[in-house]
């Protein structure tokens, strides 16, 4: 009787268990790829600081970057372009990570930051701020938008966990759709009754990094950092839940606690990002698929890649908007829609999407 000498491949909470040599080679390749993605992010960030409506030579930009001298070019670089680029890195990482987290929580490959009502909750906070409190600055919008995102997240989770049965991905999606419909109707009514609020809201809702300075960056930084750490900590548990709730429980995962923590992380990431830059489409949907195409379904690597690749896409889109809109600019939310849609279609054609 022949004996099969091939190494067995078992499933664990962190994904399939492969032979040690293959695991180390794959990890080395993924690590090298992540370093390459970080290098691209650095390059794109330098491009974002250099390129703008005011033409500043690259050599002067590089000198003023390290030695500001109070000149007009120095003020433009340090007061406008650097904060804009830093906020792009922060918002991009938050959107990419929240998209990956939502797709894992709902096991839905088409989940994006708006699926669970977080984005529209933030928009509702901005509508209330403009329509009833007269807020007109980006720093003022942040707190209302974040509060709206937080309340919407809590309501979605409470509706999804109502009744005797445990919260499931399907119930979260249905609850998110219901909350989104109610908030959309409310926002439409307020904006129709208050034309002045609509005139201000339409500039926020297109999604933009322009006009945001370091005060907005520092406001959202703590929320995004906490959400980032929590999302990465949940990655092993989400790997187990990808095989189903029953298998996850068998592997020792507390399903309810993991989903609650995941929703909290989504609220922090997506709420803070939307509050800072407005609703930016396609970043949270496309980037996790790009990461999954590169590193596979392991949530630990997928989230790390999503947190790096999303800022690359966002800042590159922001620079592209300045190029095609010169001497003005096209808002980054418009550019990401035009760039993200073809990328997503290409991924769909290259690799058929399946349930997560």
Strand-helix topology:
Layout: E1 10-12, E2 15-17, H1 20-50, H2 58-66, H3 72-106, H4 118-133, H5 138-160, H6 169-193, H7 195-205, H8 214-241, H9 245-250, H10 255-277, H11 283-295, H12 299-324, H13 332-350
Antiparallel strand pairs: 1-2
Helix pairs in contact: 1-3, 1-12, 3-8, 3-10, 3-11, 3-12, 4-5, 4-6, 4-7, 4-10, 5-6, 5-10, 6-7, 8-10, 8-12, 11-12, 11-13, 12-13
Structure description:
The chain has 356 residues and is mainly alpha-helical. The chain has one domain (55-350): Orthogonal Bundle (ABC transporter involved in vitamin B12 uptake, BtuC). Helix content is 74%, strand content 2%. It contains 13 helices and 2 strands. It has a two-stranded antiparallel ribbon with strand order 1-2. Strand 1 (10-12) and strand 2 form a beta hairpin. The longest helix has 35 residues, at 72-106. The chain starts with 9 loop residues before the first strand and ends in a 6-residue tail after the last helix.
